[in-house]
Amino acid sequence: MTTSAAQQQPDQTMDQTIEERLNELNQRYHDLSPEQRVKQLYKDFDLSEVMLTSSFATNSAFLLHLFATSAPEQVIHFIDTGFHFPETLAYKEQLTELYHLNVVDVHPEEWKHEYTIKDQTWKTDPDFCCSINKVEPLQEIKKNFNVWVSGLMRWQTEHRANLDVFEYRGGIIKFYPLLDVSKEERDGYIRDHKLPFHPMVAEGYSSVGCTHCTRPGDDRCGRWVDSSKSECGLHV
């Protein structure tokens, strides 16, 4: 049975409404500073609508300080892949205590995680490993929110270079308040506010993920070395 134009209309209208909403938000937030963007977020959305995730990696202190200052009650979801560096877990505890963060750990299904350990899936299929340990655990949680905040910056990867402050992806509006912040601005903010750097930055790690897939290197060059992979899958 063929689908009539009238039957198709609701989906088309919904897509158009989302596009109009994104255009409106991007115009409003384009010229704002990261601090102003975070404050404006809670004028446009209720706290209960906002999902904030953090990997407590090299850029995390900047983003978390902004939210600790403007919205201290905001819950922060940390995806515990089971493969984090001990330094990352210690950094998480340090920032949580320093800024009195409300952090909730998100874990992969135990049997699936155990499979990736025994199979060493990161060696043969890193996309599948990321899917099990990072992407899937967030899927159920994501259904409860309308906006997902992340600390992505344009200079980090080719994919991120093409993003806007707001985008609609995977059934949720994504918000990148730090998107147009340069490396120099990021480091300056951290220094000016006396925020602690991730301890592995001093060891030459510009980006820190899981132990098996992270090496020292500039920007994200140390992630998934000798592979075309540059994203874990959460943001694509």
Q: Name the CATH superfamily classification.
A: HUPs
In order across it, which strands form the biggest sheet?
3-2-1-4-6-5
Architecture (CATH level 2) name: 3-Layer(aba) Sandwich
CATH class: Alpha Beta
Oligomeric form:
single chain
Low-confidence parts = 1-14
CATH topology: Rossmann fold
Please report which band the strand proportion falls in: under 5%, 5-15%, 15-25%, 25-35%, 35-45% or over 45%.
Answer: 5-15%
Order of helices and strands: HHEHEHEHHHEHEEH
Rg (CA only): 19 Å
Mean pLDDT over the full residue set: 83
Provide the domain count: 1
Could you tell me how far the N terminus lies from the C terminus, measured between alpha carbons in angstroms? 34 Å
Number of helices: 9
Helix content: 40-55%
Q: Tell me, what's the shape?
A: globular
Q: Would you count the extended β strands for me?
A: 6
